[in-house]
Amino acid sequence: MTSLLEYVSILDLLPHPDGGYFKETGRSSQVTKSATGLDVPLFTNIHFLLVEKHPSFYHQIKSDEVWYYHDGQTLTVHCIFPNGDYKEVKLGRDVKNGEVLQFEVPSGVIFASSVEKEWALVSCMVSPGFDFREFRSFSRAELLEKFPEHEESINKLTRDE
């Protein structure tokens, strides 16, 4: 198996502002309008390597995001839907026990991701394409006020104030 450091080097990954490592691997030459009216690519792709000590904190984007599992340990996507429902999805190779190889996070869902040990390598495709102007992160207090029933997950997957 390829190691974390080998993947970072071979795939030329950079530190991700929200935890882990990433590199954009594709951007459509076709342009479309985003949910907020911006001109964005039809889709964008990244490799994303998440490590145990640096989860991807709760955030929201205005597009659908499809996650594809590649290697490493199980990665959990934590979703809080607009109606307050919470869902955990395990991406990994143990499909006999409920893990999935891909998962779509619908636009507008507040989500985070984590690995319990070591690291996981995934790819993400966003359509309409990702644009940081449509990225929103959340404070712990903000999420706890709106979704107090998810306190444990929110405390674990938001930055300290």
Automatic annotation (TrEMBL):
Residue ranges constituting the DUF985 domain according to the UniProt record: 7-136
Gene3D superfamilies: Jelly Rolls
InterPro entries xrefs: Cupin_DUF985 (IPR009327), RmlC-like_jellyroll (IPR014710), RmlC_Cupin_sf (IPR011051), YML079W-like (IPR039935)
SUPFAM superfamilies associated with the record: RmlC-like cupins
Pfam families with a match to the protein in the record: Cupin_5
Name of protein: DUF985 domain-containing protein
